[in-house]
Structures are given as structure tokens and as C-alpha cells.
Amino acid sequence: MIDKLPTLNRLLKQLQRVPYLASKNLYRVAHHFLEMDERAMQEFCRSLTDLLAQVVKCSQCSAWKERDRGCSFCDDPKRDRSVICVVESWHDLYALERSCCYQGLYHVLGGALSPLDGIGPDNLAIDSLLQRMQGECKEIILAMNQTPEGEATAALVARKLQSTSVTITCLARGMPVGSSLEFMDKSTLHKAITERRNF
Ligand SMILES: [Zn+2]
């Protein structure tokens, strides 16, 4: 049936490429677009073309910024310039920002090492991080995800920073807030007990 609707089929093929969009929802999303009134649809399309034209990566930290505005991190005089938190992606950065507990700068690598997906060291923003070591930075926080890819990436970045004088730290590992010991997996418990701290 869908072959008789080539325009709709083209939209479905585009939707298939959108990560996080479950394939069982593609027809529902397409239906939502079809039901949109003309003005709402034009507004939606304009927001996408504006995104393409106006939102760029900051040349220092690689976080997204408006083309004609400063970076909300690198150009904010209130941020602590002595510490840079290295994250895999922009959404990791915003997860940390939402916690309101960090006032330093960031560096977005643009992913994690994943040979199976064709992501090697050259695909990550590591050289631009090394260039930032010539500034006021005294501490680098490695805030990669605790996955095999994230840990391999953290080890690589730490190795690259070895010859610099910065202190390298990583996020604390252990029990999530509100959790019970009996439901904890073995590796989380292992990290919690081996990396314990003074009370
Ligand atoms: Zn920036």
C-alpha cells in the first residue's frame, strides 16, 4: 500500500534514520505530520532549517552554540576556567548542567571509542582538548560513561594528557542515591567498596 504513496514513503525513510525513534512509532509520527495544520508544519520545517543555519559547534569546547552568540560556557566569565570536564556527548553535558553542581568548563569529545562502529581516536575532539591545556586549566575531570567504550576513551584521553601538568580526576563510582545494597550488581558494589572514602 505504501508503494502507492511515494511522498509519504520518502518521509518514512527519513524517519527511519532518526535515532531513538522506535520503528513501531514511525507510522504514528508520519500520521502526526499529516494531520498538522499548514502553519504548524511550516513552523516545524523552519525550525529545522534555522537549526542548520544558526546552531554550530563551539570551536573550543565543541558544545552547540548559536552562530552569532558566544559559547554559554567558554565565554561566561562566571565559570571556573581552571577545570575542564570532558564528556562524550552534548546530552551528557546537559545532564551535568541540570545537576547545578558544576561551574567549570566542558569539552565534548563527540562520542566514545567504538571500533565496531568505525569510531577511532581521530573521530574524537582530542587534539582540540590538548590545545586547551596551554590555557588556565589545572584539572581535567574524565566524565565518560561507565561502559567499555567510555572507559577505553577515558584511558586514551588520560594517556594523551600524561605529558601535561594538569591533575586528572574521574567521576566517583558507586551506589546510586536511593538504592539498596541487596539490589546492586556485583561490579557497582565492587567499585563502591574499593573506592570508598572517609565519612
Ligand atoms: Zn565553548
| Relative strand content | 5-15%
> How many DSSP E strands?
6
Q: How would the global form be characterised?
A: globular
Number of helical stretches of at least 4 residues: 7
Distinct ligands, ions and cofactors found in the model: zinc ion
The description of the largest β-sheet is: 4 strands, parallel
Order of helix and strand elements from N to C terminus: HHHEEEHEHEHEH
Radius of gyration: 21 Å
Describe the structure.
The protein has 199 residues and is α/β, with parallel strands linked by helices. Helices cover 38% and strands 14% of the residues. The chain is built from seven helices and six strands. It has helices spanning 6-16, 26-35, 38-54, 90-98, 127-131, 148-161, 186-194; strands at 55-57, 64-66, 80-87, 104-108, 139-142, 167-170. The strands form two sheets. It has a four-stranded parallel beta sheet with strand order 4-3-5-6. A two-stranded antiparallel sheet has the order 1-2. β3 (80-87), α4 (90-98) and β4 (104-108) form a beta-alpha-beta unit. The longest helix is centred in the first third of the chain and has 17 residues, at 38-54. It is globular, with a radius of gyration of 21 Å. The termini are far apart. The site of zinc ion (ZN) has 7 residues, from loops. The site of zinc ion has 7 residues, from loops.
Brief sketch in words of this structure:
The protein has helices at 6-16, 26-35, 38-54, 90-98, 127-131, 148-161, 186-194; strands at residues 55-57, 64-66, 80-87, 104-108, 139-142, 167-170. By secondary structure, it is of the alpha/beta class.
